[in-house]
Design goal:
Elements lengths: L2 H8 L4 H5 L6 E3 L2 E4 L9 H11 L5 E10 L4 E8 L5 E5 L2 E5 L11 H10 L5 E4 L6 H9 L4 E6 L2 H13 L6 E5 L2 H4 L9 E4 L9 H6 L6 E9 L3 H13 L4 E13 L2 E10 L1
Parallel strand pairs: 2-3, 7-8, 7-10, 8-9, 10-11
Antiparallel strand pairs: 1-2, 3-4, 5-6, 11-13, 12-13
Helix pairs in contact: 4-5
Length: 274
């Protein structure tokens, strides 16, 4: 049963009010993240009750009050229910200790992470820029057979969780964690990579040259960006042109992997280096 249906049965809501309530919300471990527009904020207690009725394991409910922003890519939240914001998210047989109020993590990217680890070939060397608490790096290490996965992250809190999650998932022999700005750290890492992930759609464009430096013939680059639905047709060519300033490559795949705002989506464009 959807949140809207529960509220409609419980409360005598006008259609106008009901239309402003988000149908879906994100469940991260035992923490729920939900958007509640100001127009229906007075219904927050009923919304929380409806969530707890539907998901009895939930310990904390957070309302998003600010979008992901800043160098650390962290959103702002208001606690509507509970106290503890640290939790363990489970995904593809992996566990991720994290606090969504301090680090970036999205359950909505679970399907994309599955697509990536299924694409990784045995013996690949993989670079994950903007690695966060390690979901891409660790699922690749756990579910594929890479030679090495290197993750670079700027947020010191995320780095701490990343290191803990490497141990939690027993991938210490495969995953290497680097703390710092990718612009400073990546050039110091020796060698090239077979696969490079750039899962920071807000600013990945600023690091295309860096990815190109670490690529070689046959490298696949997974580039993430935000774009309006009307831009989709030309997006692959635009990304291909961006990287072609630095390296010969071709866009081989594009798809939506989450929405950001009405008619604005997160896209991934896969590039194959010649």
């Amino acid at each position: 049963m959807s949140l809207k249906k529960i509220l409609k049965e419980r409360l005598n809501l006008r259609d106008e009010e009901l239309s402003k309530i988000r149908r879906s919300f994100e469940i991260i471990g035992d923490v729920v993240v939900i958007d509640i527009p100001d127009e229906v904020y007075h219904l927050k207690e009923d919304i929380v009750k409806a969530i707890l009725e539907k998901h009895k394991h939930v310990k904390t409910v957070l309302r998003k009050v600010g979008e992901v922003s800043g160098d650390f890519r962290v959103a702002k939240y208001e606690i509507l229910y509970g106290e503890k914001t640290e939790t363990i998210a489970k995904e593809h047989g992996c566990r991720f200790l994290l606090d969504p109020t301090k680090v970036y993590y999205s359950v909505k990217l679970s399907g994309e992470r599955e697509r990536i680890f299924k694409a990784v070939k045995t013996g690949e060397r993989v670079l994950v820029m903007f690695a966060g608490v390690g979901p891409f790096a660790i699922t690749i290490a756990k579910k594929a057979k890479p030679k090495e996965v290197v993750g670079v992250e700027l947020n010191p809190v995320a780095v701490d969780y990343f290191k803990k999650n490497v141990k939690l998932n027993r991938v210490e022999n495969t995953v290497k964690v680097y703390e710092g700005d990718v612009r400073e750290v990546v050039p110091k890492i020796k060698g090239k990579f077979d696969r490079i992930l750039m899962p920071s759609p807000n600013n990945a464009v600023e690091f295309a040259d860096l990815a190109a430096e670490k690529a070689k013939s046959g490298t696949v680059i997974h580039y993430y960006t935000f774009a309006g639905i009307e831009e989709e047709r030309e997006l692959a060519k635009r990304v291909e042109d961006l990287f072609s300033q630095y390296i010969s490559c071709k866009a081989i795949f594009i798809r939506k992997c989450g929405n950001f705002a009405p008619y604005v989506y997160r896209y991934v464009v896969d590039l194959l280096v010649d």
